Amino acid sequence: MSVITIRVAKEVKEKLMKYNINVSETVRELLDKYISELESRDLAERLELLKKRLSGKIDPKLVAKLVREDREIH
Question: What does the pLDDT look like over 10-33, one tens digit per residue?
C-alpha cells in the first residue's frame, strides 16, 4: 500500500479523536467509493457516446432475436 499524508485543522483532529474515528479506514473507504463513482460516470459517458454512434445502425428485431436465442441456450 502507498502512504498519503494530509493536514487538517486542529478542530477536525480533535473531533476525530473525540469520536474515535479510524481515519485510515474511513479515508480508504471514501476514496474507494469516490473512485467507483467516477468510473461509473466515465462508463456512462462512454456508453452514451457509443449509443449516439450506433444510433440507427442496429436492428432492434435482430437484437431481440439474438437475446431470445441466447436465453434458450442457457
Answer: 999 999 999 999 999 999 999 999
